[in-house]
């Protein structure tokens, strides 16, 4: 049994919870090694403190689950079968008194909530989220190795994008080139919608790429990540095309120094808020505080946004094994938008930067 599943079963035991029903694609993958997006169909793990777990998935995916290394019972159901009756029978067969069930409250929909209540005689439902977040927050060596590869591909994607910059090309032209070359390397999924934003568009932190053409004097912002073997990367770089004015350079330098200050603060025992404030206080001192409008960063792993959240109020201490982004930005409407983002791994005595595309201001000609 893998260590993640063992730790979760131990939590169920010490918490006196006889049954957990895990339903999100991400957490099923984390605990089982099997990644599936069954769309409207049910995907779940039934986990017990002292009995073997059960994977529930569409029958057509059962061979893939076995190939992914799942060694325990699989309830594979067809589109004309009722998986809930099959689950109830399997749980009853293990002599489990399902008086209390741990679920993902943020994920389970009302219809499935009602199915659980009906098939298990109105059990008390408790949240499994916090424990699952804790388990996913600390990466093991295998996870870290995969994330490193995802970060290498993110660096490569930025390189492609920068090389595509030409006057008259649109944001979508550059975006298409990035994703085309990644697909040629076997990457079939981005971690989120790729962003290529030029000129004034870059002043929108979550702008939408379109047919805006790149012009001389523009800052061009790239924000992208890939999914590699189930894990995400996330990188942002901002470059200048042909020319940069004093205001743009001042904003860029401010963001870069703020980001470096937050990276310097990244070490075990530091609080999440320490990192955010290291960057935020620097940006505020330079007169741009009102233009840094989001948190410093977020955890990274199976999901592109997971724990921890690097905000100015989060007092969670950093621990060895955490992976997160550091991505301060300044967004001045109608003037300029700059964000610089790296993926960070907390080591025993500091941190390792996992993304390596250069951060010194590049002027592309």
From TrEMBL:
This is Aminopeptidase P family protein. GO terms for molecular function: aminopeptidase activity; metal ion binding; metalloexopeptidase activity. Pfam families: Creatinase_N, Peptidase_M24. InterPro entries: Creatin/AminoP/Spt16_N, Creatinase/aminopeptidase-like, Creatinase_N, Pept_M24, Pept_M24_MAP, Peptidase_M24B, Peptidase_M24B_aminopep-P_CS. It comes from Peribacillus faecalis. The keyword Protease applies. Residues 146-348 form the Peptidase M24 domain. Keywords: Aminopeptidase, Hydrolase, Manganese, Metal-binding, Protease. Residues 4-138 form the Creatinase N-terminal domain. It comes from the Bacteria. The keyword Transcription does not apply. Belongs to the peptidase M24B family. Its cofactor is Mn(2+).
